[in-house]
Design a protein that fits this description.
single chain, 71 residues, General stress protein CsbD
Length: 71
């Protein structure tokens, strides 16, 4: 299990990318408070019907290159 740390500033960029990639996500699904990464991952995994490892991988990939416009 990868331990992700997401800052509020970084989350704004990642959240925008996720809404472009998964247009079914609602604002409730994307609600995030620093330090509650595991709750966010579980909620996203359930909503997009993927396992938590996939969500961690996707978030980690987006966090590595915040300036990229790639999804």
């Amino acid at each position: 299990m990868t331990n992700l740390k997401i800052s509020s500033k970084d989350w704004e960029v990642v959240r925008f990318k996720l809404t472009r990639k998964y247009n079914t996500l609602r604002s409730e699904d994307l609600a995030y408070v620093e330090g509650q990464e595991e709750e966010l991952i579980a909620r996203l995994a359930k909503r997009i019907r993927r396992n938590t490892d996939y969500v961690r991988f996707t978030l980690g990939k987006e966090l590595q290159d915040l300036n990229s416009n790639r999804l």
